[in-house]
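Example 304, ligand PPE.
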Amino acid sequence: MAIEQVEKIWMNGKLVDWDDAKVHVLTHALHYGSGVFEGIRAYETHRGAAVFRLTDHTKRMINSAKIYSMDIPYELDELVDATKEVVRVNGLKSCYIRPIVFRGYGQMGLFPLEVPVDVVIAAWPWGAYLGEESLHHGVRVKVSSFQRNNPNSIPPAAKACGQYLNSILAKIEVVAAGYDEAIILNQHGYVADGSGENVFIVKDGTLITPPLWAGALGGITRDSVIKIAADLRYPIEEDNLTRTDLYTADEVFFTGTAAEIVPIHEVDDREVGDPGPVTRKIQEIFFKTVKGEEPMYEKWLELV
Ligand code: PPE
């Protein structure tokens, strides 16, 4: 998906012009995937642009860095303020925000602890990740033949650059086969998540989503949906799901920052609900929440 250029990018403590936010070709992360990143969205609200759960996203990035022994030379509040600044100076009302912490230029080889760590925060306007239509009509998904990274090889708990090669393999496979998005199983055959989304099913009125130990990323949208569903008094469980649980579900949907809440209407060529009522309700409350129209969840909005 094309990136729409804006004016400034925050790079190692300074705002630089978009075209000057560059790195050397011998950057460690380019060779070894040694970076961690976040995907965050800001939405237009009646009180101005607000970043959805910015502090939680930033904390997750700090934890991702910790897993890879990367020292981020900024504190949580500095990263939070810098993110707000990027949205503000670019005059963005709603946008996607991509902070990235990566091992930079200076040394090659696999022992990384002496390589300088760079921190960049960029933002740009980004529409619906799986297409505007997907939000209304849902997507067709296929279970990929590529398995999710296992926690003792590349831990899915971190949001690290290199681990996305796993999602990229799955995505290429299913798009080439004519589907919109992939669902990825773990090494035990249980659902982990999508290439860049968490998965939920609805079965007899209960929402079920794979536990984090199944290899799902601890999605911020996932967590928001769990809380919204609980407040709506929907029973909600974290449990292992097999691919046939997907086939026989009443409804299936994806959650993610980029994807937002996307109904799934077909899994491996089986119809699984024609965006069903629970998915619709969760979508409705989620979109009201991020736009500041749900007073109950105002605490999740961080004004820029
Ligand atoms: N699982 C994976 C593998 C994943 O990458 C994401 C986010 C999620 C679940 C949902 O997490 P959350 O955004 O906190 O609700 N994927 C990000 C990157 C997508 C991309 O193409 O890049 C995102 O949605 O920003």
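Summary: The mean pLDDT is 97.
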